[in-house]
Structures are given as structure tokens and as C-alpha cells.
Amino acid sequence: MASENDKSGIPNLSGGLLRWRDWVYLLSLLVPLFVYNLALKASSVASIPGLAPGFDLMRSNVFFNLGYALFWIGLFVVVRGGGLARRILVILLHTATIVVVIVTTSAYQYFQQTGTTLDFGVVALWLPQFGEVAPVLASGSTRWGWALLFVALLYSVLGPLLVTRLVGRWRGWPEMAREERSGASLGNWLPSLGLMSLAIGFGLLSLLIGARSTDNPAGASVSFVRDPFVNLVLTGAKGASSEENASDSSVTSQDVEHPAANASLAATSQTGERNVVLIHLESTRASATTPYNEDLETTPFLDELAESSLLVERAYTVVPHTSKASVSVNCGIEPRLVQPTTEAKPGGIPVPCLADLLKEEGYHTGFFQSSTKDFEDFEGLVGNFGYKDYYPLESLSVEGFEETNYFGYEDDILLKPSEEWLKENGDGPFLAEYLLGTGHDDYRCLATRYGSEDFSEDAMLNSYLNCIRYQDLFLKNLFDQYKELGLYENTIFVIYGDHGEAFGEHRRFQHDDVMWEEGLKVPLLIHAPGWFDDGKRVQGLSNQTDILPTVLEMLGYEVENGEYPGYSLLHEPPEDRTLMFSCFHDKACSASLKGTEKYIYHYGNQPDEFFDLSDDPLEKNNLADERSGEVEERRQELIEWRSSINAAY
């Protein structure tokens, strides 16, 4: 009896598993997908110094794509012919492939921008606030990246149909008969089960690759070695099964009352009415400023100011993320160590913040921001900090000002509303914060009113350093404004970086998950006329929780009914102090610093790291193997610290 393929004039293949038309249709989709995924992975591997595309780094992708292809071939073997069942199967095939293409391309672009892998936690954070995230994605992706995604998606939808028709015409295949298009039949289950078994086997192999950080060459992370789709699924499953993550997700759970929950201020004989100004330098790492790096002339005004200021030589952020750093500065506590900005929700901060405390003492409070209020939900944060007056970008006139990143304008846009507010509130003591946005990526600072300078041959780094230069120019303009209004002499100015910024020094870019010095070490200066005229230097370890107690001591207040964790920088911090740090994304990494010895814990995603900054300031020589006993102790300390911080929220 003639086979189905014989009747249609099309030869069969593999004992009649599928018709040639089906083979062409499937392979014209699955083979390009295989090549596309491997090409993106090879490009990512090649972009990392010291790595080269090889089977060890590519095998998870190879096995995933083999399993994916065999899975769909097995289904097509079962559901043969035409009809509703086959049409549903074809729709499912294309839908699944589109999802894989989007995940793979997004993971590739994300890695190129940040040096980190795209996991489920990042996606879960983005989806509920896609309106805020969309400009980030648009600014970070190149035209080539968008074109690549468009072509890949277009081919995923139409490519197999067009290829099959072209091959059919070339080979002279007849059109499918009506009964073939309308009817479906069940094929042989035995070959299908064999193909499905192979698909499951390859799928499991793709999951098991990189089970330990020590499995990978040249320190490549487990998540990087995995296929992007596999990594997304596994990190999602891990997050869903984690009881700690489940408990962390509730804003209202408070297992422990924070020691400063009921804090208030008590006046002393030293109490005086001085204004307080917090100046938030966005994405400013210490080494990008002249006081901390004399080889760079990016911030000459800040350098001049440092000569008559208190300068903290070893100041750090707790979490390298703007909203989290703002919690430490304004509230004097470590932020909640989860990636959503839960501190912006009602009741999200467990202690009274500086604005709350000073309002009780008769202070006016105002917050000025050159970026949108939706940026990291700052509208909610500012309200929880206790500021009465709020001036985000939406309340300002942008005429005559240039955009300096995807969510804000040049910082000089704040000068006019600042002047108006100061004229209205300058007769009494006040607390004002200026959140600058110019330092944030995507660093559009080469065409502002102040021109640009050549600081680096690297184009991105040069743009960033020009943004730091712009912030310094704004700083001078702001100080001139205070002098012209007669407010300078009676004001305490606190100038700080919220976090650093990475440019590939340790295969990372930007800041969220950067535990090395370029991401954590920030400038911190306190300038108060009459206080530090000859300059003062603090040499001990400090973080942003020290700002609140320092300001309160300078104002002459004591804290009663509570205790904040930081130390006043009018005195040297304890020599045995240990600083703890956390990446922004949940359990991506954390670190601790004792003296000059830093330990970085990557939660098994890549080998732990241990550096002695006194001998190795650039953190190139990993001593973790030599200090294995101490590494274990430091790891446990970090786990306990994370739990204790989150328990207070």
C-alpha cells in the first residue's frame, strides 16, 4: 500500500516519522533558533577578557536547544496531518519559540549592559512597573539590538512558512489535499516516546551544567554558564521555593522592633539652629572625584571645598542602589535587603527619619529632584522620609534644559525652585535635600551648556566623568546661591555619593550588583563654615548610616528613647568596625569589610572572593582558597546580618 508521502509525490524520511514538508517546516525554525542562541552565547563569552567560546561554556545552551528541538519533533510525530489539533500545535510551537527568542535576546542585551545575567528576580521586579522600566530598556539597548530582536521575532513567526513554500515550489511538491488540511491523525507513539525521552535527557543535562561555581573555567558564574531560558526557569523555581523570600516579600511583617523605632530628640546646652543641606551625588564613585583621585580634574570645586571640610577617606554605601542608599542617609539605618523599594510603601520604614525628627524641632523641610518622581518610587520615599515640600521633575519647567539621562534633566534645573523655596523658608532653620540625577546612566553629558572635556579614551567612561564634572559645576552654583541669599554661613552641607559605578573592572557595569570598590566606595564630605576650616580627615571605616548621628551631634541634639546604628563622624569610628554590604538583587551577592580585608559572597553563583585592600586595592588577587576558614565564618556572618536587618522591617 502506498504511503501518505507517496500519494502526494513527496518522499518520506526516517521510516515515515514525518513528511518532508513537516521536516522542512520544523527544521527551518529549530535550526536557526539553535544557531541564533549559540551565536549570542558565543558573543557574550567572547566579550569577557580571559574567556573563549568552548564546549564547557556552551554545553548548557547546546543541550537545551537539542532537547527543545526533539520535544517539538516528538509532538509533531504524534499529531500528524492537518486539522485543529495540528493548528493548535503549530501555534504553541511558534508561541514558545517567540518566548525563547525574547528571553535569549533580552538576556544577551542585559548582560552587555550590566555584566550580569538576567534571572527571574529581575523580571519579576520589572513587570509590575514596566512603565518605569521601559525608558531604561529603550535607553540601554542599541538600534542594532532592537533590529536583532525584530528580525528574530519576524522570522520566528513567518520564516518556516515562507521557507517551506519556497522549498515546495523548488521541489515541485503539490499543495496539500483538502482532506490532509482538515484531518489530523495520531502517529506512532513509540518513536514519539523515544524522542520525548531524549528531549527530557538533554533538558536535564542543561539544568545540571554549572551546578557548582567550581565547575566553571576562569570564574564564569553558574548563571552565565546556563542557557538563559534555563537560568530564568531555575531562578524562578528557587525563588518560589525559598521560605525566606516568601517572608521577605511582606512589607507588614515585623519580627523585631528596630532599636530606633521610638527615637526622638532631646535638646542640650549645645543645641543651635543651623540649616542642614544634603547633596546627593548620583552614581558617583570616590575614584571619579578629585579629592579621592588627584589624577582626575573632574571636580575642582569639590576638591577646593575639601580643604576646609571633614572628608571621610573610607566611606561606603550599604546597598549600591539609589533608593536604598537614600534610606541609609535620611533614616540612619540599613535599608531592607530585598530588591523592591518596599521602603516607599506606607509604613515601609520602621524608624523616624531625619526630616521627621527635625520637623518636631520646628524645621522646614524640602526635597528637590532633577529626575521624575516615578524613579524608584521616590514620591513615596520622600513622603516616608518626612519631607513636607517636594519638587520632582514633574513640578519643574524644563524649557532651556537638556536631558542628561533617560529619566531626568541637567541639575541646574533645580536652582530656580531652590531659590524660591529658600526665600520663603530661609528665615527659620530648614532641612533641604538635592537629589542630583546627572551622574546616572546613560550619561548624556557631552552636549550641555558647559561643554565637555576629555578625561578618558573610553567613550562611555568619558561621558560618565563629564557627568561627574557637571555635578561639580552645579555644586558650585548651589553654594553661590546660598552665599547670595546669606544662608551659607549658618548651614551644614553634607555631600555624598549614593553608590559607585562600574565600567568592566570586574566584568560588571553600572552598580546594582557590584561589590567591589568601584561600586561601594563613595565620596563623603561635610562642610560647615566655622567647623573644619583647616580640614579634617576621618580614616576609619564609615557608611551612610553615620550621616544622621553626625548631623544631630553638630546640631547639638541627643537621641532618646532609641538608638541608631551609625557613629558620629566627629570622632573616629571604632577600629574593629565591620561593614556589611548587599547587592540590590535578592541574594545575588553580599560582602563584608574588616580593616582592609574584604570578603565577597556570591551565593554559590561563582567562587567566593577574599581581598586584602592594603596590598591589592584593585581587587585582582583572590585569596579565598588561602583563607578558607575565615571565609566560612564571614559567610555565616553575612547570612545572619541579612536576616537581622530584614527582621526589623
From TrEMBL:
It comes from uncultured Rubrobacteraceae bacterium. Residues 274-557 form the Sulfatase N-terminal domain. Pfam families: Sulfatase. The keyword Transmembrane applies. Gene3D superfamilies: Alkaline Phosphatase, subunit A. InterPro entries: Alkaline_phosphatase_core_sf, GAG_Ulvan_Degrading_Sulfatases, Sulfatase_N. GO terms for molecular function: transferase activity. PANTHER family: SULFATASE, SULFATASE N-TERMINAL DOMAIN-CONTAINING PROTEIN. The chain crosses the membrane at residues 23-42, 62-79, 91-111, 144-168, 189-211. CDD domains: LTA_synthase (cd16015). Keywords: Membrane, Transferase, Transmembrane, Transmembrane helix. This is Phosphoglycerol transferase.
